[in-house]
Amino acid sequence: MAGPIHPRLLRRARATRAFLVATVAVGLLTAGLLIAQARLLADWITRAFAERAFPEGWPTALALLLAVFAGRGLLAWASSVLAHRSAAEVKSELRRDVLRARLATPVGGASSATLVRVVTTGLDALDGYFSKYLPQLGLALTVPFLVGGAILLADWQSALIIAFTLPLIPVFMALIGWTTQRATAHSFAVADRLANHFADLIAGLPTLQAFARARAQRTGVEVGEEQYREATMRTLWVSFLSSFALELLATLSVAVVAVTVGFRLVYGHVDFPTALFVLILAPEAFLPVRQVGVHFHDSADGVAAADAAFEIIDAAPTLLEPAAREAPHLPRKAPHPVDGPVPAPLLTLDGVSYTYPGADSPAVEGLSLAVAPGEVVALSGASGGGKSTALALAMGFLSPSEGRVIVDGVDLAAADPAEWR
Q: What is d(CA 82, CA 396) in angstroms, rounded to the nearest whole number?
């Protein structure tokens, strides 16, 4: 699983570039509105206490305050619209590339159940990454610095406390984030096993019914469900624990600022407008960072599904990434359209071997044969003997570990597989 920012996800759609720029801009504007809001409230409340009545010009101050609230709401709405648009484009691109990768490598790779789960509910969870986590991350990278700068200009002692306590939150977030990644990855793997187990049961249901073993599979499904429930509860437990830790740390930090400001106000070391301004802004410096930790858990499932999608896509790089060199064309028997069937090319397997990833022994070893145009060849052997693997090698769905597949004198590894198929 990637870190706070998933670079491959952000490179997936053009809309994400505008979204990232907009996220930073929203953070800067939000920080400015927060500072203006705190200043308006501090001045207005101070004058109200001093004059023991509504201060002069309060309608203007109220209108400005309402404008600030409206501006913050408008920024949040614009960020949400861009986020959902970016998420939709990224999900569409990922689903298209996953299906193309599957068509390019139909043999081996992810199971059908895994594929269905990834391209449906799995990638749908990316909405949390784009609509909640990334916008909040943009706020966390901009708001604390600008708000802290405003507090520094007003009261350097409070700014010093914030400067020491604020970095503790990302440290705890990183520590908790590692645990969250492991829990989320485990939960995704358990759900994947359950989906594959259920798909295998559906595929083998006629055979199970024929041998009266269909009801006996209920226990296996119940065990898988219980494992998934435990993994989900573990993930939720980590999420709630991390949220509690971040809230506690942020609350204590704001409390330290409030206590010190209160004592200095009592002893006359700071005036009331400045103290109120600092007390209003101090929680806003911690809030974006706290929310990043909360929304990180919302995005974890989507990022795990995206990583699974990238694994499927990476299994067919030649299809999705054009080669730097021009692949030679296979010879054609009939360069111009002719009536009747086109003569088939000569297919030769020269010492072909293939070992599946993670396997101890090759599925096909030292296979050599030549198939002349029009010749019919039957591959026979025991189940698991490598017949399907040999056919996949001949079709170009798999690349030989050793040896060559030659079509009319052209090595299939250097040719365009789509042209051969």
A: 41
- Separation CA 294–CA 122 (nearest Å): 20
What residues form DSSP beta bridges with 353?
402
Rounded CA separation 147/33 (Å): 10
Quick one: residue 354, left, alpha or beta (phi over 0 = left, psi -120 to 50 = alpha)? beta
Q: Where in the chain is the domain with CATH 3.40.50.300?
A: 347-420
In terms of Cβ atoms closer than 10 Å to its own Cβ (0-12, 13-18, 19+), residue 298 is middle
Give the pair of three-digit tokens for residue 140. Answer: 């966390």
Chain mean position to CA 348: 44
Which structure tokens are listed for 397? 């769905």
- What pLDDT is recorded for position 109? 61
CA distances to 64, 86, 113 from 41, in Å? 10, 36, 57
How far, in Å, CA of 253 to CA of 373, rounded?
A: 80
With beta carbons less than 8 A apart as the criterion, state whether 130 and 87 touch.
yes
Nearest residue to 305 (alpha-carbon basis) of 57, 118, 145: 118
If you count DSSP H runs as helices and E runs as strands, how many of each does the chain have, helices first? 15, 4
Take residue 36 and report the two structure tokens written for it: 């203006």
Going from the C-alpha of 72 to that of each of 24, 31, 67, 83, 96, the distances in angstroms are 14, 10, 9, 16, 36
**DSSP codes, 223-269:** HHHHHHHHHHHHHHHHHHHHHHHHHHHHHHHHHHHHHHHHHHHHTTS
| Per-run averaged pLDDT (10 residues), the chain, 421 residues | 65 70 82 88 82 71 87 86 82 85 68 76 80 81 87 90 84 71 76 78 77 75 83 80 80 89 87 89 85 74 79 63 45 47 69 79 84 82 78 79 82 70 60
Domain with CATH 1.20.1560.10 in the chain: 7-320
Question: From CA 283, how far away is CA 280, in angstroms rounded?
Answer: 7
Q: pTM, whole model, 2 decimals?
A: 0.62
Residue 349 · residue 412 · CB < 8 Å? no
Task: Give CA–CA dist 222/113, Å, rounded.
Answer: 18
Q: What CATH number does domain 347-420 carry, 2.115.10.20, 3.40.50.300, 3.30.420.40, 3.40.190.170?
A: 3.40.50.300
Distance between terminal CA atoms of the chain?
Answer: 36
CATH number of 7-320: 1.20.1560.10
Q: Give the span between the Cα atoms of 307 and 293, in whole angstroms.
A: 20
Q: At what angle do helices 218-266 and 156-165 cross, to 10 degrees?
A: 160
